[in-house]
């Protein structure tokens, strides 16, 4: 391989590794996020992870025992929702500057975000590689036209079909 091409490929691979490391740090920072909330009367507290899954539920004191079951359930559900909102806000704050273009925080937090597509979209070839590929394509096109060795040219549908191909179907010798 030519040294110039190898250097350009090394540059592309370094950029890919840099993007991969950045996305890995982003994922790790999301995994560390939690959200917490405590009910208005301070009877219940809830902690959730970045996905909104409950990681802690605590009943404080004994006053919650005097509540009707439906009322206690409403307090628990409302407190869970507050904790989930707290986690969503924390995720947004921690990653807003780092999100790949078009990324939805809800998809990232839920695990539905396609990180592979994000890496593919985020990595662009250096201009020197794009220029090299363009010059290689132009060079191949020039060689095809000159009759030099190279990939075979394709048959243009507007070219007349050779008489032998129509008489024998082109498969017989």
UniProtKB/TrEMBL annotation:
GO terms for molecular function: DNA binding. InterPro entries: YbaB-like_sf (IPR036894), YbaB/EbfC (IPR004401). It comes from the Bacteria. Residues 141-173 are annotated as: Disordered. Residues 164-173 have a biased composition (Low complexity). This is YbaB/EbfC DNA-binding family protein.
